[in-house]
Amino acid sequence: MFSSYYDMVIMRSITPNLAECCAYMMNELGRDSRRNTPIINAGAGADEHPTQALLDIYTIERAMSFFSPKDSSQGTLYEKFRGQYPDLTKGLDGKTIGFCGDIRRGRTVRSLITLLAKYKNVKLYFITANHEMLALSTDMKARLLKQFAEVREFESFEDDLDGQPVINSLDCLYMTRIQKEHNPDNLDEDFSQIDFSKYKLTRERVAAMREYAVILHPFPRDSDFGEIPTEIDNDKRAHYFRQARNGMWARAALISHIFDVDGSVADFYDAYTFDKKDYNESALG
Ligand code: ASP
Asked: Residue 236 in 3-state DSSP?
């Protein structure tokens, strides 16, 4: 029915591997020369969220390229920041990315770290309570170590890393909300032992971060929990609204690629931008 009625299925489900299974099924149909339909996994249970990972990596990559004032308010000040942070390089290789909050059940975290581990010498630091529902799972840890990523776990932003609080060393901090929808009924008591204030940003914590560092969040924020209070929103390091906007573009790009029109979109863009417009520039001074 799907392949008869639709040109594409964007599937968001509580079942972890449903999109994957449907995609394999469509492949089978295709092999039998029957009509098949592309499936996009738009978030699967606590498992994976691949399109979010694409927009996240795009956002980090652009911010770490320092090539446009739009991507970072310090964008054109790369040399100045090199003076302040001599180890600063352009690009994702060698970067230190921190993840805070619900590491175990945050599907966006799982998908993003899988992509990040493909870059050279990437350090992935996980900052959360040492609780089986929240900490990095052993399967993910094994996957990352197999890809030679440096993986370390911390229980607070202030934990020591080479004589400094770990938050000072981050190039990027990926905040997440606690995924309450996955809590088993009897878990509340267990969670009440955890000091969650350790996993929330404050002005002081943000001020301790590197000036060019990027703070991300896959949204929605949990305003009751307050992992990122709105007072952080105007800080130069807060990139999460741009990240959300990039989500629209990353998904538009993916859909145009699947429908094989990405080349035409690029041609159209080139023609549009190279076309000299007569804006009466002399009058504008
Ligand atoms: N929007 C993201 C997701 O679908 C993050 C979240 O819900 O916490 O997984």
From this structure: coil
| Residues 6+ away with beta carbon under 8 Å from 15 | 44, 45
Ligand 1 neighbour 49 (Cβ under 6 A): yes
My answer on whether omega of the bond before 220 falls inside 30° of 0, hence cis, is yes
- With contact defined as beta carbons under 8 Å apart, do 45 and 107 qualify? yes
Q: Tokens in use for 266?
A: 């690029």
Banded model confidence at residue 46, pLDDT cuts 50, 70, 90: very high
Ligand 1 atom nearest to 177, measured from its CA: 8
- For 126, other C-beta atoms within 10 Å of its C-beta total 25
Relative to beta strand 123-127, strand 39-44 is unpaired
Determine whether the shortest distance from the Cβ of 219 to ligand 1 is under 6 A. Answer: yes
Phi, psi of 282 (to 5 degrees): -65, -35
pLDDT tens string 135-179:
999 999 999 999 999 999 999 999 999 999 999 999 999 999 999
Residue type (1 letter), 64? M
Q: What share of the chain is helix, strand, coil (3-state, %, to 5)?
A: 40, 15, 45
Nearest Cα to Cα of residue 140 among 117, 166, 169: 117
pLDDT for 83 equals 87
pTM: 0.93
- Would you say the CB of residue 101 lies under 6 angstroms from ligand 1? no
Domains for the chain: give ranges and CATH numbers. 1-45 (no CATH), 50-244 (3.40.50.1370)
Atom of ligand 1 nearest to the CA of 102: 8
User: Is 53 strand, coil or helix?
Assistant: helix
Given a contact cutoff of 8 angstroms between Cβ atoms, the answer to whether 49 and 108 are in contact is: yes
**Rounded to 5 degrees, what angle do the CA atoms 161, 167, 169 make?**
65
Quick count: other Cβ atoms within 10 Å of Cβ 145?
Answer: 12
